[in-house]
């Protein structure tokens, strides 16, 4: 089982990445993006949806031969992660708190917490 502090560390790293990078660049860098025609999507919709749900890939469906006119299909898990991140970053106070937490982590200013009661424990 993962320690709560380890999970929190990775969550902070994940959020830090969103704070310092544009979501558009993250999608292009880390996700496999597949582009299919509307006809192909229509014909193979179930298999595309199954693949997206299983792999968390991104599916692009261009329209009207225009790069800026397209539909993006993502899994509900990815959508929820993006909206949660947007919510966490929606206020200056949240962004500052997360940035301060990341800076504390970088300099080794961390605390351990008990999973049972959530209280700080000595290292």
From TrEMBL:
- Keywords for this entry? Membrane, Transmembrane, Transmembrane helix
Keyword Ribonucleoprotein attributed: no
Transmembrane stretches, by residue range?
Answer: 6-27
Identify the InterPro entries for this entry.
Antitoxin_Phd/YefM, phD/YefM_antitoxin, YefM-like_sf
Keyword Transmembrane helix attached: yes
* PANTHER family per record: ANTITOXIN YAFN-RELATED (PTHR33713), ANTITOXIN YEFM (PTHR33713:SF6)
Give the protein's function: Antitoxin component of a type II toxin-antitoxin (TA) system.
Which family does the entry's similarity section mention?
Belongs to the phD/YefM antitoxin family.
Q: What is this protein called?
A: Antitoxin
Species this protein is from = Pedobacter psychrodurus
């Amino acid at each position: 089982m993962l320690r709560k502090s380890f999970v929190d560390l990775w969550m902070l790293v994940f959020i830090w990445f969103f704070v310092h990078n544009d979501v558009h660049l993250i999608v292009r860098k880390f996700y496999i993006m597949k582009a299919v025609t509307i006809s192909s999507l229509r014909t193979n919709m179930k298999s595309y949806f199954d693949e997206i749900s299983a792999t968390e890939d991104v599916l692009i469906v261009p329209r009207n031969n225009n790069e800026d006119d397209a539909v993006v299909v993502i899994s509900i898990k990815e959508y929820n992660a993006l909206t949660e991140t947007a919510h966490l970053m929606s206020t200056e106070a949240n962004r500052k708190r997360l940035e301060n937490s990341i800076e504390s982590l970088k300099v080794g200013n961390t605390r351990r917490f008990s999973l049972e009661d959530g209280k700080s424990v000595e290292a």
